[in-house]
Backbone:
């Protein structure tokens, strides 16, 4: 039930968030184009992530999937919340992130250790949440992870 609540709120809020809060241009790149990148690249791994979960790039929200790939985070609701904690630890501050963390913590108090560990890992990494990942799709994923000390959640 708690996952349903969060997923419903996400589905209601996604379009307005994309329209009014996300100012960058959409990447306009397909999964097919992503998997054409070199096998060790961020672009290729992003394409594989999207294929694995039968997703397609969401306009203006592409960085979200990049964060999943870089932190090796799954897509369950507690994992989504833990990734937001990771990004909070890394210095990202948005109203949407704070809302997800607040509501997620209320609905998943049993996952507080997962959230705390994710926050600490984000804090230990060099700031990476603000990078222009479209320009980094050709970079080896391990290079980005090691350069910014990004560890798996």
Residues:
């Amino acid at each position: 039930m708690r996952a349903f609540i969060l997923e419903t709120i996400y589905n209601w809020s996604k379009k307005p968030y994309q329209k009014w809060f996300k100012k960058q241009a959409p990447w306009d790149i397909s999964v097919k184009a992503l998997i054409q990148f070199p096998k060790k690249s961020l672009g290729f791994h992003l394409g594989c992530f999207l294929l694995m979960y039968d997703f397609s790039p969401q306009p203006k929200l592409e960085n979200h999937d990049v964060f999943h790939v870089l932190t090796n985070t799954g897509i369950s609701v507690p994992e989504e919340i833990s990734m937001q904690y990771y990004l909070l630890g890394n210095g990202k501050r948005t109203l949407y992130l704070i809302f997800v963390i607040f509501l997620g913590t209320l609905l998943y108090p049993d996952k507080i250790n997962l959230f705390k560990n994710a926050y600490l890992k984000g804090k230990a990494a060099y700031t990476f949440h603000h990078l222009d990942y479209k320009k980094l799709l050709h970079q080896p994923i391990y290079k980005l992870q090691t350069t910014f000390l990004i560890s798996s959640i």
Observations:
- Residues 2-21 form the longest helix (20 residues).
- Residues 95 and 116 are 19 Å apart (CA to CA).
- The chain is about 60% helix and 0% strand.
- The mean pLDDT is 91.
